[in-house]
Design brief:
heterodimer, A: alpha/beta, four-stranded mixed beta sheet, 17 helices, B: alpha+beta, 4 strands, elongated
Chain lengths: 439, 161
């Protein structure tokens, strides 16, 4: 692990990069100055050469997406930054906003120039109050230093809805509506925010752009693997000694992250399962621990790198309870627009409750898989898939856990599972006083 | 916000926010947030009328938007809000015991407000602090690595705040 290039968090351990003068002391905003001497197409060419792919989870080519923006639109063109990080297990964009807000802003300004946009909106997750405050302070410094050059940057706070991390749900929310995803096409590049051409990029993607301009796309592409270039902020959490964000090149193995950097599993427990990309991703088993963390390697195992959130699960966790809690989350966050997702996630929760409580009959295990199958790929956005994919993988790979619940008429962990009794928001007792509170 | 001076101030503040956007609808979320703050942490009927008035929308539209988002409260809440993450990463590391410690210390169940109207306790979905379980938001400020044993001290702090 000697070679650990830092791109996104470079310099943040040594200096307080929330301050403009500190960021400038390490060459901050020099990429912006250089980019502004370049033709917009020249920047897109560098992005294409870098093979940078979106860090929000979809991993689509950033350069290609930028190239879809029409160059002759009579309407304004918008850059929207998706800072609505809410996938369980993911906490990288929060750290980027907290520690390197100027790198994010610089990336936004370079990208705005690449698509000839004068308008940037950063949609920040509502719960990220302190991050909003840090980015706002950095933006004030940028404005005072005359670095915006006529570009308006608006920080827009969300208000608690996972679905607004989906790009068209985000656009609806930014337009002051309920955050229900749109049908595509038209794609945002043609009709996005206010029905105008819109490029939507993730925080980490934007914070990577300054380094690509500095190094040149071809040089950046040498980091990582040919298909998955550059570094990634891997969010390590769950049953692991040293959880946290680790910026590492793509292609680092799961074992290196969990054991070499993360210090392994605490309390003498055994590794049981690994979620490689956030709660919506199909699970991996301990025998797959030497898999490199890149797109192709994980695709070969029928899972995804997603938002690079690695959740470590030890042998104290009941996989039925894990599936139930994951399904409860997606049920809570389903926007209700598409029937398979709205109803299917509820059925999943009902079935998982029955299995966990020992009330399920044999056929209901297959019924659960059938429900998952009837959600997959049948909705406007991937939220339903995000519930169905992981839960189906838990049944597939940990069938014994599920079968034991049916055979024993209850949870074989007998109340000792680490996830026992976890109260999901969707099921909490809701009571509000009906009378006015005393002032 | 019965005071006309406050009402005028609210309208000015909301319209200043709306001026940042090409379309005033975009200011609905920020306006609801300002209104919720002015009304003691929740959105009574008047709040929707005030937001609608400032943005030239209908109260029903504003309510329909607010009801989509977890951070808007459509019924009264306590002076303080305690939100405990019970998603999987915190869950694997003892979130339920932290929640139960808050329930015991405050004498309410999750989703309820204390009788004196001081504290509302609720569970929330992942707050994005998964490496530092359990994450608890106290009046929207994150407390990381909270354990059940920390709860009495946190509740005492709220009592003094």
């Amino acid at each position: 692990m000697a070679d650990r290039p830092l791109i996104v968090l470079a310099g943040a351990d040594e200096r307080d990069l929330t301050r403009l003068e500190e960021y400038r002391a390490i060459g901050g905003y020099e990429s912006l100055a250089r980019a502004r001497t370049m033709e917009p197409q020249g920047i897109i060419d560098e992005l294409l050469a870098s093979n940078l792919r979106g860090r929000g989870g979809a991993f689509f080519s950033t350069g290609r997406k930028a190239s879809f923006i029409p160059k002759d639109s009579p309407k304004p063109t918008y850059l929207v930054v998706n800072a609505d990080e809410s996938e369980p297990g993911t906490f990288k964009d929060r750290e980027i906003m907290d520690r390197v807000p100027h790198r994010l802003i610089e990336g936004c300004l370079i990208t705005a120039h690449a698509i000839r946009s004068q308008h940037v909106f950063i949609y920040i997750r509502g719960e990220y109050l302190e991050e909003f405050e840090v980015v706002r302070a950095a933006l004030e410094e940028t404005r005072a230093a005359d670095l915006l050059d006529g570009v308006t940057v608006v920080l827009h706070r969300g208000a608690g809805a996972y679905i607004c991390g989906e790009e068209t749900g985000l656009l609806e929310s930014l337009e002051g509506k309920r955050g229900q995803p749109r049908s595509k096409p038209p794609f945002p590049a043609i009709q996005g925010l206010y029905a105008a051409p819109t490029l939507i990029n993730n925080v980490e993607t934007m914070a990577t752009v300054p380094k690509i301009i500095e190094l040149g796309g071809a040089e950046y592409a040498k980091i990582g693997t040919p298909d998955s270039t550059g570094t990634r902020l891997f969010c390590l959490s769950g049953n692991v000694e040293r959880a946290g964000n680790y910026e590492l090149p793509h292609g680092t193995t799961i074992r290196e992250v969990i054991y070499d950097l993360g210090g392994g599993i605490p309390d003498g427990r055994e590794l049981k399962a690994i979620i490689p990309g956030g709660s919506s991703m199909p699970v991996l088993t301990p025998d797959q621990i030497d898999t490199p963390l890149d797109h192709d390697a994980l695709r070969a195992l029928d899972t995804f790198l997603g938002a690079a959130a690695i959740i470590v699960i030890d042998d104290q966790a009941c996989m039925v309870q894990l599936g139930l809690r994951v399904a409860q989350f997606y049920m809570h966050e389903s926007c209700g627009k598409c029937t398979p997702c709205r109803e299917g996630t509820r059925w999943m929760v009902q079935l998982l409750h029955k299995i966990e409580d020992g009330r399920a009959v044999q056929g209901e295990l297959d019924l659960l898989l059938d429900v998952c199958d009837r959600i997959l790929g049948k909705c406007l956005c991937p939220l339903g898939d995000a519930a169905a994919m992981p839960v189906a993988s838990y049944v597939d790979k940990f069938r014994d856990d599920f079968q034991a619940h049916i055979d024993h008429g209850g949870c074989p962990f007998g109340g000792e599972s680490s996830l026992e009794g976890l109260l999901a928001p969707v099921e909490q007792h809701v009571h509000h006083p009906t009378v006015e509170l005393p002032s | 916000m019965t005071n006309p001076e406050n009402a005028a101030h609210f309208r000015d503040e909301v319209r200043a926010v709306a001026a940042q956007y090409p379309d005033r609808h975009s200011a609905v979320l920020p306006a609801l947030r300002i209104a919720q703050h002015a009304h003691g942490g929740w959105l009574p009927r008047e709040a929707f009328e005030e937001v609608a008035d400032a943005l030239e929308l209908t109260p029903a539209y504003c309510r329909s938007v607010a009801s989509f988002y977890d951070m808007f409260h459509l019924a009264a809440v306590g002076r303080h809000m305690v939100e405990v993450c019970t998603n999987i990463c915190c869950g694997l590391r003892g979130a339920q015991s932290v929640l139960e410690a808050f329930e015991a210390e405050l004498g309410v169940r999750a989703g309820e407000t204390t009788d004196d109207g001081e504290v509302t306790l609720r569970t929330v979905e992942c707050l994005g602090g998964c490496a530092w379980p359990t994450v608890v938001a106290l009046d929207e400020r994150f407390r990381l690595s909270v354990q059940a044993g920390d709860v009495p001290g946190i509740v005492a702090e709220l009592g003094n705040g």
